[in-house]
Structures are given as structure tokens and as C-alpha cells.
Amino acid sequence: MKKFYIETFGCQMNAHDSEKVIGTLLSNGYEQVETPEAADLVFYNTCSIRDKAEQKVFSRLQEFKRRNKGKTFAVLGCVAQQEGERIFEKAPHVSMVCGSASYNRLAEMLVQVEAGNKRVTGLSLDTEDTFETPLTRRDNPHRAYITIIEGCDKSCAYCVVPFTRGPERSRASDNVLREARELAEMGYTEIQLLGQNVNSYLDPSPAGLTFAQLLSRVAEVPGLRRVRFTTSHPRDFGKDIVDAIDGNPVLCNFVHLPVQSGSSRVLRAMQRLYTRDEYMRRIEWLKSSPRGIALSTDIIVGFPGETEEDFEETLGLLDEVEYDSIFSFKYSPRPNTPALRLTDQVPDEEKGRRLTILQEKQRGIQLRRNAEYIGRVEEVMVEGFQKSTGQWIGRTSQNKTLNFTTPAPASDTLIGGYLPVRVLRAGANSLVGESLN
Ligand code: SAH
Ligand code: SF4
Ligand code: F3S
């Protein structure tokens, strides 16, 4: 039996794509192994969102080659789509290059590879059908991803995703709901709906559900206890989403709403299609919800032309919103993107300085916010056990990590279960507590 090894970088979309790829390979008679050394076929599912991620791909490919002479190598994902056949020039030991819109052709491409074809490609972006497969091999037995929309029709000036994942294609709501019901029947209790921009979901089926309606319908599937979604684009984020969350506790009280910058001037240059005030209106809807919705965001520092004043507006936004967590990045120039033409680049040390200031400020905010949880009881889904500390790892509906001990040593695994936990201590990135039973 042919053995394969797969390594995955990037966002949840990529992680879920790998689950689909693994399912397809297993159903075609391949066996998955834990190291590249043990494999005949090495798959590498790549990310190209920042330059560092892309550089890593080529250094890792060299490393694979050095240690694994004579094997077959395949590059998947966003670098595959972006670099296409150039990958064969840069890394001649690679014999297959395939972007995410072509995974439904994977079985056929593997036949070509097996036949000795040294340059097999799947790079078309205009594939009609989203990757519908019953063969997904999910990594986690309790929490599952469902893709509801592929690609992105926005054109944020810094971003490669529209080039690497193509135009938006929404999946029919009846297919999404069928997958959710099947997962619930298999025992999954948490579902995360995925897309680069879930808010621009446009149901192609006659049901014509809006994203908020789809959310509510998924949350009504019997057996599901938690439903999350990511990522939201502020421009398309409607009040109806907050109303849906208010209407059903299965919809987690957590929203990731990437802002990128607190300066309307920079937002315009980024082509984000909203102003700071418009963004803050969404935050007000979210904050006025009785559910206590936790908020997270993405921020880019040092976009071309970002001045000290612009940066201070971003710091001010952090104070105003008080996010529960943020992901922050130094602006990284990417191929094909409109921002490449902007001349007023911020020097790398200055980007680094701004990033450090931003992260230190946010750390203080998180310490303060998390301290408010001390004494409260939160329901967690148990995700794991940490031997070194003797603590179980839990996650709250608000997406906070809440590590906990039990009053008496647990006789059986708690993983996958739901438990009430009293919060005893709080750090910037996690809470610590003790379960009530
Ligand atoms: N579709 C999502 C996420 C896109 S990628 C959205 O629109 O929010 C995730 C994050 O990576 C982005 O939100 C952005 O903050 C960051 N990012 C994207 N391109 C980048 C670049 N060229 N340099 C630095 N950060 C970038
Ligand atoms: Fe990139 Fe913007 Fe699309 Fe997000 S919305 S994937 S940041 S182009
Ligand atoms: Fe990276 Fe592609 Fe996701 S560039 S962040 S893997 S969409």
C-alpha cells in the first residue's frame, strides 16, 4: 500500500482542506504515516499570506529533498496556486502542484503522478462546484469544520487571498445543513462554519438563506451544543447576525471581526470599504447584546503610508473596543497585490516597534478583562489534558482557554465533554479554575 505524509500551514480553511485531501487519499487506498521518511508521497499544504510563510515553504521543500531522496513531492494550497509551474523550476523534485479549487481532481491527478508524469498541475480557479466530499477525515472527534463559502471577492490592497483562492463561491444551504446533521449524528457537538468572508454568503439554492438565517438553522440541528463561524468582514457584517446570536445560546458568544487599522485614512488605502465609525457601529451592536459577546480582531501595523498619528488611532481603538484577543502582524508586501505600488513603505524596525507597543497595550487590556471572570462559573468544552500541570484544558463559549482541575482525580477521560468550571485565576491569555463536579 502506498504511504503518504502531509504537513499543513495556514488558516483553518487550509487545515480543513487537508482533512478533505486526507479523506480522498484514504479512500483511494493510500495509508497516512507520521513522518516524511516513512512515506512514498509527501504533501505540503502551504500558506502565502505573509512573506515569512512563503519562504518557509521553499526551505522546508529543500529539507524534505535532502532527507528523502526518490520520493514523490506535491505542493498544495496558496503557494501552489500563487507560484504555479514556477515551483517546478524552483524545486525540481516536486512533481505535483495543486491549488485549493482543484482538490476535487486530486484522485485523477494522483493517477498521472503514479504513471510517472513529473509535472502534474491543478491550477484552475474557475471550478464551479465547491469541494463536496463525504470522504473528509476529521482531526478532532468532537469539533468539526464546515466550509460554507470559498474564495474572496474583496480586494484588500495587501492581501493575496483573492489570487490564491479565487472568486467567491457559496455552497447550497441544504448541503451545509445536511453535513451539519450528519456530523451531529456522528457525535460531533461543535461546528465551525468557515469562509474567508462568511458574511457575503449567498445561498445558491432556492431556499435563498442569508448568512444569519443559515447560522440559526445550523444552530437548531439536534445534538449540536456550539456553533462558531469565521471570518467576518466588517463591511458585510449585519445586525441580523447579532440578533441570531441573541436568539440561540448554541451560537457561541464570540465574534472575530478583523479591523486591520483604527485610522480611516489607512482603511481607505487598504481598500477595506469601511471607516472607523462604521466599524465602531458594528462593535456597538455586538456590545449591546445581552450575551456578553467576546471580541477578537486582526491588526496590520506599518501599512505603506501609516504615520505615527494613524498608529495612535489604532492604539486608541484597542482602548475603545477592549478586545478579548487580537492577532497582529507587520505589513508584508505580497505579489500581485495593489499595495505593492505604494511607495511610502514603513521601515522594518519601525514596524517592529509599533507591533511591540500594540501587543504590550493589548496584553494589559486582556489581563484586565480576564480578571473580571474570577469567581464566575463558565461552561467549558474539554479539549485535552496537560500531564505537566495536571490540568484539563477547556474552552468557553467565548473562546477563552480555561484550564482546570477536578476536586477528585477524574477516573475517566473528560475530553469532548462539557462541564461547569469556576474561574479562580486569570492571566493575559488564559483562565485557571476548578470544575464544580
Ligand atoms: N479573510 C479574513 C482573513 C484573511 S488573512 C479577513 O478578511 O479578515 C488573516 C489576516 O492576515 C488578515 O486579517 C490580516 O490581518 C493579515 N494579513 C493579510 N495579508 C497580510 C499582509 N500582506 N501582511 C500582513 N498581514 C496580512
Ligand atoms: Fe484578504 Fe480582504 Fe478577502 Fe480578507 S476580505 S481574504 S483580507 S482580500
Ligand atoms: Fe494562508 Fe491561504 Fe489561508 S494564504 S491564511 S492558507 S487562505
What does this structure look like?
The protein is of the alpha/beta class and 437 residues long. The protein folds into three domains: 3-122, Methylthiotransferase, N-terminal domain (Rossmann fold), CATH 3.40.50.12160; 143-371, Alpha-Beta Horseshoe (pyruvate-formate lyase- activating enzyme), CATH 3.80.30.20; 377-435, Nucleic acid-binding proteins (OB fold (Dihydrolipoamide Acetyltransferase, E2P), Beta Barrel). Helix content is 33%, strand content 22%. It has helices at 12-27, 51-67, 77-83, 86-90, 106-114, 161-165, 173-185, 211-219, 239-247, 264-269, 276-287, 308-321, 348-371; strands spanning 3-8, 31-32, 41-46, 72-76, 94-98, 120-122, 143-147, 149-150, 169-170, 190-194, 226-230, 254-256, 294-301, 325-330, 377-386, 391-396, 401-405, 418-426, 431-435. Strands 2-1-3-4-5-6 form a six-stranded parallel sheet, sandwiched between helices. The protein has a five-stranded mixed β-barrel with strand order 15-16-17-19-18. Helix 8 (211-219) runs parallel beside helix 9 (239-247) and helix 12 (308-321) packs parallel to helix 13 (348-371). Bound molecules: S-adenosyl-L-homocysteine, iron/sulfur cluster (SF4) and FE3-S4 cluster (F3S). FE3-S4 cluster (F3S) binds at residues 10-11, 13-14, 47-49, 77-78, 160-161, 164-165. S-adenosyl-L-homocysteine (SAH) binds next to strand 13.
